[in-house]
Design a protein that fits this description.
Elements (H helix, E strand, L loop, with lengths): L5 E5 L4 H13 L3 E6 L19 E5 L5 H11 L3 E4 L6 H6 L2 H24 L2 H6 L1 E7 L23 H20 L3 E6 L2 E2 L8 H11 L3 E4 L5 E3 L1 E2 H14 L5 E4 L4 E3 H15 L11 E4 L14 H7 L7 H14 L1 H10 L10
Parallel strand pairs: 1-2, 1-4, 2-3, 4-5, 5-6, 6-11, 7-10, 8-13
Antiparallel strand pairs: 9-12
Bound molecules: nicotinamide-adenine-dinucleotide.
Length: 353
C-alpha cells in the first residue's frame, strides 16, 4: 500500500498522528513527512525508530505559516496530506480559546490554500491521485440524549470552543472541495485511547494516579458517555479512508464501545488491582466526584455503518481488550510518561479527557 507515495502527516508527534506514522512506516511503503510545531502535546519519543527509517522525515513547522508551508510542499511534492495537527484538549479550550481558533481554523485554512496551490501544480496523473484527508471529531455534532447515534447526516451543533473550531475547519475543507475541487475527505471520530496518550487525558491520567494510589477525580456523577476507539484501529481506518474513500465524502469512525466515564475509571481500577494489587485495598475507593465542567456534553456515540460497509473497516479491539492492552502498555512504558511528568506541563484543569 502507498508504495512510493509521499504522505504529509501534520501533527505527527501527537497522540493519533504518531499512531498513524507508526502504522504507515510499519504496514505500508509510504514515505512520511511529519510536520509538527511541537506544542506541549507533542512527543517525538512516540515515534521510536522513525528517525533511522529512510522513509521518514521530520519538519518542525507551524501549519499557520503560509510561506514555510509552501516551501515544504515544493520540497517534498506530496501525494497526500493527512491533517491531524490541532489544539485538541477541550478543557484547555475553555480557559484559552485563542490558540484553538488560530491552529484549528486559520491553520487548516493555510494548509488548504497551500495544498490547493500544490495540487494545481501537479501533472494530471498525479493530481488525479492526490488526496487531502482532514481528521476531525464527533464533538462537532454536539451532545446526544440517552439514545440515537451520530451519522454523517447529523447536523453540526458544537458546544465547546474546541468543537466549534473543529466544526469550522470541517466546513472549510468541505468548501475547498465544493468551490475549488480539491480532492478532500473528512473523518469524524470518537474518543481515542491507547498507547502514547498524553498523561492529562482521562485514561492515562487515571492509570497513573491509580498506580500511585492517588485520588481519582471524576466529573459530575460520572455518567457522561463516550464511544471509545482504540488508536491503532483509528490509524487503520484513516489509511483505508485515504486509500479507498470517495472524494468529497465524510466518514464517521467509532468503536461501538459506549462506556460511562465512571465505568472507564472503575475498569482501570480493577485492571490495576489485578496487575499490581495495593496492600491498602481495591482502588475503586480512590474515586471522588468533582464539579462538572461547563458545557460538558452528556453522550457521544458514533454510527460507523458507512465506513464499515463501504470501506470494510471494523474496529478490532473491544473496549475490554483495548483497555487491558493500554493499562499493560503504561505499566511497561513508565519511562515514556515519567519523562513528560518530569518535564512538567501546565495542567489547566484536572485531566478528564
Ligand atoms: P494531540 O494534541 O495529541 O496532537 C496534536 C499535534 O498537533 C501535536 O503534536 C502538536 O504539536 C501539533 N500541533 C498543534 N498545533 C500545531 C500547529 N499550529 N502546527 C503544527 N503542528 C501543530 O492531538 P490528537 O489527540 O493526536 O488529535 C489529532 C487530531 O484528531 C486532532 O485534529 C483532533 O481534533 C482529532 N481528534 C482527536 C480525538 C482524540 O480522542 N484524541 C478524537 C477525535 C478527533
Amino acid at each position: 500500500r502507498f508504495s512510493g507515495a509521499t504522505i504529509f502527516v501534520t501533527g505527527g508527534a501527537g497522540f493519533i498522528g504518531s499512531a498513524v506514522i507508526r502504522h504507515l512506516l510499519r504496514d505500508t511503503g509510504a514515505r512520511v513527512v511529519n510536520i509538527d510545531k511541537l506544542t506541549y502535546a507533542a512527543n517525538l519519543d512516540s515515534l521510536p525508530g522513525a528517525t533511522e527509517n529512510s522513509r521518514y522525515a521530520f519538519e518542525r513547522q507551524c501549519i499557520c505559516e503560509a510561506e514555510p508551508m509552501r516551501v515544504l510542499f515544493e520540497k517534498y511534492r506530496p501525494d497526500a496530506v493527512m491533517h491531524l495537527a490541532a489544539e485538541s484538549h477541550v478543557d484547555r479550550s475553555i480557559d484559552g480559546p485563542a490558540e484553538f481558533i488560530k491552529t484549528n481554523i486559520l491553520g487548516t485554512f493555510t494548509l488548504l490554500q497551500e495544498a490547493l496551490r500544490h495540487w494545481r501544480s501537479l501533472a494530471p496523473e498525479r493530481s488525479a491521485r492526490f488526496r487531502f484527508l482532514h481528521v476531525s471529531t464527533d464533538e462537532v455534532f454536539g451532545s446526544l440524549g440517552v439514545d440515537g447515534y451520530f451519522s454523517e447526516q447529523t447536523a453540526y451543533a458544537p458546544n465547546s470552543p474546541y468543537s466549534a473550531s473543529k466544526a469550522s475547519s470541517d466546513h472549510l475543507v468541505r468548501a475547498w472541495h465544493e468551490t475549488y475541487g480539491l480532492p478532500t475527505l473528512v473523518t469524524n471520530c470518537s474518543n481515542n485511547y491507547g498507547p502514547y496518550h498524553f498523561p492529562e487525558k482521562l485514561i492515562p491520567h487515571m492509570i497513573i494516579k491509580g498506580l500511585a494510589g492517588e485520588t481519582l477525580p471524576v466529573y459530575g456523577d460520572g455518567q457522561n458517555v463516550r464511544d471509545w476507539l482504540f488508536v491503532e484501529d483509528h490509524a487503520e481506518a484513516l489509511s483505508l479512508a485515504l486509500e479507498q474513500g470517495r472524494i468529497g465524502e465524510t466518514y464517521n469512525v467509532g468503536g461501538r464501545n459506549e462506556r460511562s466515564n465512571l465505568h472507564v475509571v472503575e475498569s482501570i481500577c480493577d485492571l490495576l488491582d489485578q496487575m499490581i494489587p495495593r496492600s491498602d485495598g481495591p482502588r475503586r475507593r480512590l474515586i471522588t466526584f468533582v464539579k462538572d465542567r461547563p458545557g460538558h456534553d452528556q453522550r457521544y456515540a458514533i454510527d460507523a455503518t458507512k465506513i464499515e460497509s463501504q470501506l470494510g473497516w471494523k474496529a478490532r479491539e473491544t473496549f475490554e481488550s483495548g483497555l487491558t492492552k493500554t493499562v499493560g502498555w503504561y505499566l511497561e512504558h513508565r519511562a515514556w510518561w515519567n519523562a513528560i511528568l518530569e518535564r512538567g506541563y501546565k495542567q489547566e484543569r484536572i485531566g478528564l479527557g
